[in-house]
Write a sequence for this structure.
């Protein structure tokens, strides 16, 4: 399966906190895809755990790398756009 | 035992007030101590799964009871409760021999260690710990219900309330007092949304017991033992006696939207334009041309009058992606504000030059100031850079105690200073702004802060440097009168407060403002200072 890469920026004024983390996990679970998120240059975390994502301690203004395992680029791109939307706060 | 009339101070939530009987929430039955299981891992895993499912159902029920405002909070909590990684971590604990309840609490604590020291997450951490307690209680067969009466009128008093607790509030809850918790705690948020008068962070409330009568008086930030409705602190009303305020009231802005909204208010110009918002989402350093374009738009939209622009105020806790800042042990005491000059001089010069282009294109009067200046040399360095880059009035923020002692020596070098009261308090009292339990020290009515501000106004005047205040405190109408009484020459308020601050400053003469300030100086603590100032204001408006 192909991996589609993207990046998102945390714009929420309190960072990647419980609510967006929960929204992302819900979206990822509904999509049935494997998605990984993390800081550039560090090991990415599977986006199936809100706690794991909060543990990234991503702050406002930080950029995150996101990887989606999917052969359908349109689906993956839409998912990444949705994640960015959740991070707008 | 508390005497009748005793005043317990805390932080008020909401504008309403209520007098009723105390209902002290009982400390819940204690959970069993940490213990090992008898060796059947599969059984423990099964009982953990069952307990998580039961608590999840309980949360769903509470979400329905709590209604709209809390539904999202409960949804997020349920997701955390059912977190797969958390379950994996707990399973590993069971493999090490811990029983199901202990394992789940330990697993949550493993995450707690990761979040420790991060204030944004620490408040949520309490919510997650509450979930862990509920899972452990479910396994042990203990009830965590609060048993709040369903009829009558009660002021509920407790340490702090979790989302699961507040969802159990009945019709009989007419007031809330918490010993812990700050103005952004879950309790405060819920009470605000349900219009329940509350006082949070009220440490003396630990001595309140069932059956006592109390007045919950959020406007006065206090709880009064045996207080009556007639003891309520009146929200002040200001009757403008002149058309213009005694000193100009400017607005704080951070974006084009703010500038447009501020120009619809009665603000005379902008007293604080926070520029960092323009850079927080940029991945690479914007070109001078693109910065100038953004600034021109904002300057053109801003309300008539001078526009005070603060150069970038970033640090490792407020990072700008394209300026490599790294992590710091103590970001508030680290490389931030004008201290970025060491490694990012080009960026600050670019910013000043873009502002000059925007100043020319918009035809507006622009003042520039640097944040976090703590020495004479830094102030002189910034003044030289700013004057080389453009035709500005030049100033600095006064937010570190050290610079207060050198304002006099900056006579002739600076046109103005602007006080950031939040940071000045943080550095004066050595009290972290981000720590909710230190809120009382950061109260602007603290006598030491009032005296520091008075000194700043006086030395600025002697040095011929114009002085203003742009911190949070300048958005409080009564405090703005005190600032004018000290001799400050302008205040800058958040947009929504411009109208009321203007009105307050139009309701008094300069002499009267001075009287209010002198009344505030008689207080030995923040509450006394505030009460004295409010009493003086009330006396003036009664004339």
């Amino acid at each position: 399966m192909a991996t589609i890469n993207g990046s998102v920026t945390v714009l929420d004024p309190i960072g990647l906190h419980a609510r967006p983390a929960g929204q992302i996990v819900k979206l990822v679970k509904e999509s049935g895809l494997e998605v990984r998120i993390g800081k550039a240059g560090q090991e990415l975390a599977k986006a199936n755990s809100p706690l794991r994502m909060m543990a990234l301690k991503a702050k406002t203004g930080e950029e995150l790398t996101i990887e989606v395992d999917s052969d359908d680029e349109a689906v993956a791109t839409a998912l990444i756009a949705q994640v960015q939307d959740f991070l707008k706060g | 035992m508390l005497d009748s009339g005793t005043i317990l101070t805390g932080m008020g939530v909401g504008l309403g007030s209520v007098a009723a009987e105390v209902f002290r929430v009982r400390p819940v039955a204690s959970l069993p101590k940490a213990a090992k299981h008898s060796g059947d891992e599969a059984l423990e895993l099964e009982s953990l799964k069952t307990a998580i499912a039961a608590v999840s159902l309980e949360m769903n029920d509470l979400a329905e009871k709590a209604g709209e405002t809390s539904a999202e909070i409960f949804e997020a909590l349920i997701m955390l409760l059912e977190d797969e990684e958390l379950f994996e971590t707990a399973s590993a604990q069971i493999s090490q021999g811990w029983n199901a309840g202990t394992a789940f609490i330990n697993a949550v604590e493993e995450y707690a260690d990761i979040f420790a020291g991060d204030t944004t997450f620490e408040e949520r951490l309490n919510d997650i710990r509450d979930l862990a307690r509920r899972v452990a209680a479910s396994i042990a067969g203990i009830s965590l219900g609060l048993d709040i009466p369903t009829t009558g009128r009660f002021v509920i008093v407790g340490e702090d309330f979790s989302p699961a607790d507040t969802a159990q509030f009945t019709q009989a809850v007419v007031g809330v007092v918490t010993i812990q918790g700050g103005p952004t705690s879950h309790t405060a948020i819920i009470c605000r949304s349900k219009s329940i008068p509350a006082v949070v962070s009220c440490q003396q409330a630990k001595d309140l017991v069932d059956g006592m009568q109390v007045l919950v008086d959020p406007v006065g930030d206090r709880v009064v033992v045996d207080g009556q409705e007639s003891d309520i602190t009146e929200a002040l009303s200001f009757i403008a006696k002149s058309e213009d305020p005694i000193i100009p009231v400017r607005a704080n802005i951070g974006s084009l939207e703010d500038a447009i909204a501020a120009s619809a208010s009665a603000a005379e110009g902008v007293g604080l334009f926070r520029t960092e918002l323009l850079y927080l989402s940029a991945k690479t350093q914007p070109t001078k041309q693109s910065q100038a374009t953004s600034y021109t738009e904002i300057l053109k939209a801003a309300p008539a009058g001078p526009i005070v622009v603060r150069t970038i105020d970033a640090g490792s806790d407020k990072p700008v992606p394209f300026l490599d800042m790294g992590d710091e042990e103590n970001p508030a005491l680290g490389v931030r504000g004008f201290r970025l000059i060491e490694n990012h001089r080009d960026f600050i010069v670019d910013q000043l030059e873009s502002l000059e282009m925007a100043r020319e294109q918009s035809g507006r009067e622009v003042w520039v100031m640097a944040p976090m200046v703590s020495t004479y040399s830094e102030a002189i360095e910034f003044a030289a850079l700013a004057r080389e880059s453009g035709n500005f009035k030049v100033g600095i923020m006064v937010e570190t105690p050290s610079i207060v002692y050198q304002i006099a020596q900056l006579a002739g070098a600076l046109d103005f200073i602007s006080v950031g009261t939040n940071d000045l308090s943080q550095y004066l009292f050595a009290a972290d702004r981000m720590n909710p339990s230190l809120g009382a020290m950061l109260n602007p009515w603290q006598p030491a802060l009032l005296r520091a501000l008075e000194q700043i106004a006086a030395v600025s005047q002697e040095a011929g440097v114009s002085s203003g205040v742009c911190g949070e405190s300048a958005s409080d109408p009564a405090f703005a009168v005190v600032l004018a009484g000290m001799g400050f020459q302008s205040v800058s308020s958040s947009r929504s407060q411009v109208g009321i601050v203007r009105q307050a400053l139009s309701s008094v003469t300069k002499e009267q403002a001075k009287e209010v300030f002198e009344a505030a100086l008689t207080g030995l603590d923040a509450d006394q200072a505030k009460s004295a100032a409010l009493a003086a204001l009330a006396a003036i408006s009664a004339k």
About this structure: The interface with chain B takes residues 9, 11, 14-15, 17-19, 21-22, 25-26, 48-52, 54-55, 57, 59-63 of chain A (CB under 8 Å). The radius of gyration of chain A is 12 Å. The CA atoms of residues 18 and 89 of chain A lie 11 Å apart. Residues 3-86 of chain A form a domain with the Histidine-containing Protein; Chain: A; fold (CATH 3.30.1340.10).
